[in-house]
Specification:
By secondary structure, the protein is an alpha+beta fold. The chain folds into three domains: 30-112, Thrombin, subunit H (Beta Barrel), CATH 2.40.10.10; 123-213, Thrombin, subunit H (Beta Barrel), CATH 2.40.10.10; 233-328, PDZ domain (Pdz3 Domain), CATH 2.30.42. 17% of the residues lie in helices and 37% in strands. It is built from six helices and 21 strands. It has helices at residues 29-47, 76-79, 214-227, 246-251, 270-274, 293-299; strands spanning 51-56, 59-65, 71-74, 85-88, 94-103, 108-112, 122-123, 134-139, 147-161, 167-174, 186-188, 193-201, 209-213, 233-234, 237-243, 258-265, 281-285, 288-289, 309-315, 318-324, 327-328. Strand 8 and strand 9 form a beta hairpin. 35% of the residues are buried.
Length: 332
């Protein structure tokens, strides 16, 4: 029987070497700088036309249009008790403005100018902001209209004391340079989305600047448009933070190490009706720990108005339970 022979091409021996890969070209510093510049320029072109200068008597600040029919978001401290307001657009056109509402506890305000089809900015989701991303502040520092400063988001979730004394939560920290006159202006991303409302800087420190997060600003603005103010509940006590002695905490099986010492109770207030007295120490509100005055403020929201809540207090080193019905906090 014939035998078929198949001849294969000769193979070179394996020498354990790896075929060289094509080198990837790395962008040089000039290209990176140009890309950064273009990102900032694009954001300013998107948001810049909506950023306005606010003249308020002897002071002023900045603001940002967020609807095409003339609603402007700014800081409460820019417009509160300021008298007649004037808004200057980037093109130099000036309009009279009226206050829709303001809230000193969050340092936010909404004002309105007449107009239609005005340039306006959009809010981003501040929950998606990341530390280290580029942040751009647009405003009018010291009256220098339409100035731009760029930096990064330095930290998230900061707390800052407002001018009313109440603690503002979820504040964005940035090193984008802010100065007097930047107040009320927007902090934006490279996509041109507003992620904060610039509110404060710490002097004489450098690069410690803060903005109210856009999600807070959007919520407050909606309430100010609807009600002209932010409704909150109150119980009518003045208090201060105090530690709870360990022996007292053990004897009463307390899970908290501090509370609110009641300095005074307003006459005819919800707290007075509930039986709260001077010298009591407030431990919990509606089952939630109250470790300080700021905790109590956080619990006293508008949805607590008229709703009974249980208070746990210490009275003469013994735990006592009361029921309080918070009322709407009066203006002023």
């Amino acid at each position: 029987m014939p035998v078929w022979v198949v001849r294969l091409p000769a193979l070179s021996p394996y020498n354990r070497t790896v075929a060289p890969q094509r080198e990837r070209s790395q962008p040089d510093d000039d290209e990176l700088l140009d890309a950064y510049s273009q990102a900032v320029i694009r954001a300013v072109e998107i948001v810049g036309p909506a950023v306005v200068k606010i003249d308020a008597g002897r002071g002023g600040g900045s603001g940002v249009l967020f609807t095409p029919d003339g609603l402007i978001l700014t800081n409460s401290h820019v417009v509160a008790d300021a008298g007649p307001l004037a808004v200057v657009m980037p093109d130099g056109h000036s309009s009279r403005a009226d206050v829709v509402g303001h809230d000193t506890d969050t340092d936010l305000a909404v004002i309105r100018i007449d107009g239609t089809a005005l340039p306006w900015a959009t809010f981003g989701d501040s929950r998606r902001v990341r530390v280290g991303q580029v942040a751009i502040a647009i405003g009018n520092p010291y009256g220098f209209q339409h100035s731009v400063a760029a930096g990064v988001v330095s930290a998230l979730g900061r707390s800052l004391r407002s001018r009313s004394g109440r603690l503002m939560d979820d504040v964005v920290q940035t090193d984008a340079a802010l100065n007097p006159g930047n107040s009320g202006g927007p902090l934006v991303t490279t996509r041109g989305e507003v992620i904060g409302v610039n509110t404060a800087m710490i002097l004489p420190a450098q690069g410690l600047c803060f903005a109210i997060a856009s999600n807070t600003a959007r919520f407050v603005a909606a309430r100010l448009i609807r009600d002209g103010r932010i409704r909150r509940s109150y119980i009518g006590v003045a208090g201060q933070n105090v530690p709870i002695p360990r022996a007292v905490a053990r004897a009463n099986q307390l899970a908290v190490s501090s509370g609110v010492f009641v300095v005074s109770v307003e006459p005819d207030s919800p707290a007075a009706t509930a039986g709260l007295r001077d010298g009591d120490v407030l431990l919990t509100f509606a089952g939630e720990p109250v470790t300080g005055v700021d905790d109590l403020h956080r619990h006293l929201t508008d949805d607590r108005i008229g709703v009974a809540a249980t208070l746990a207090i210490l009275r003469a080193a013994r735990r006592v339970q009361l029921t309080v019905v918070p009322a709407e906090k009066p203006l002023g």
